[in-house]
Amino acid sequence: MSVGRPASVSVVIPVLNAVRTLGAQLDALEGQDRGAGFEVIVSDSGSTDRLQEFLRARTAAGGIRVRYVDASDSAGVSHARNVGAAAAHGEFLAFCDADDIVRPQWLSALVAAAPTSDLVSGSLDTSLVNSAAAYRRRPMKPSSKSLESDFLPYAPGCNFAVWASVFHAVHGFDETLMATGEDLDFSWRVQLAGFRFAHAESAVVDYRLRPTVREYWSQVRRYAVGDVQLYLGYREYGFRRTSVRAFLAHVLRLMVTNPIVPQKLSRTSRERWYGAVAVVAGHLQGSFRHRTLFL
User: Are 257 and 122 in contact (CB under 8 A)?
Assistant: First the structure.
């Protein structure tokens, strides 16, 4: 396990056709309050929106210097993170996404937790960069606690840092999990390997949500499909599925609160109902896909 403050830090950003939002994230990194320097690596999954031209133009204009690495040989955010980590020079790796915005103290807060931890999660805030409707669907504010799951706590892929030695010790991200629970899997493997997990409340990322109900439904359902694959990998470690009785009771509650049934439901309650149904649909879809019952 690592001790002391890291001598060098790398920030890794997986990117795919994100020029529209990447500039704001790079501006935020340029405004970090961390005294010592750090490198920024953009790991490109195969963008077709002239990403390299965009980065060269920013550098020429005096913006933060960015190292570009090509991760287009295989699809998925997991592969992009692994390629970025492999190219990094820092002994401490911080990860963020191209469509979010890190707060000024983000990196310094993650680094401050490094001496006493191996993996550090940060906080998410959805109140500033989303519409009021999107925020009501998924309200999130900085918290003193890390994100929880039905198994172990986890660090979100859009906001965490890890010692490079630890990242490589657990072989990085599982590239078979392209965008469905890859951050949970990574966090769980780090903890099961005996490494220390911590949370830095003040390492805040302004996190962008899916703007429409249709996109929200699709994302929640996709994540729920991934739950089944995670269950297959971690049931031997104690990850438990919902009992059939509890599942049927949940479905009954959803039927009773169906927005089609005449009743006075707020728009927020209606959209959260859609999200709950998306979880059920994803678990059923995943159960068929992986030929195992997970409810």
Answer: no
pLDDT for res 182: 97
Cα 9 to chain centroid distance, Å, stands at 20
Question: Which two tokens mark 154?
Answer: 């986890």
In DSSP notation, 113-168 reads HGGG-SEEEEEEE-SSSS-HHHHHHS-----SS-B--SSS-B--TTEEEEEHHHHH
Question: What does residue 234 show for φ and ψ, rounded to 5 degrees?
Answer: -125, 5
Query: What is the percent of the chain where pLDDT is above 90?
Result: 73
Is residue 44 within 8 A of residue 129, CB to CB? The reply is: no
Say if residue 220's pLDDT is above 70: yes
- Distance (Å, rounded) from C-alpha 292 to C-alpha 69? 38
CA angle 93, 96, 102 (to 5 degrees): 115
Q: Are 183 and 235 members of one domain?
A: no
Rounded mean pLDDT, 34-45: 89
Q: What is the pLDDT of residues 76-116, one digit of tens each?
A: 999 999 999 999 999 999 999 999 999 999 999 999 999 99
Give the residue numbers spanning the domain of 186: 9-206
CATH of the domain at 75: 3.90.550.10
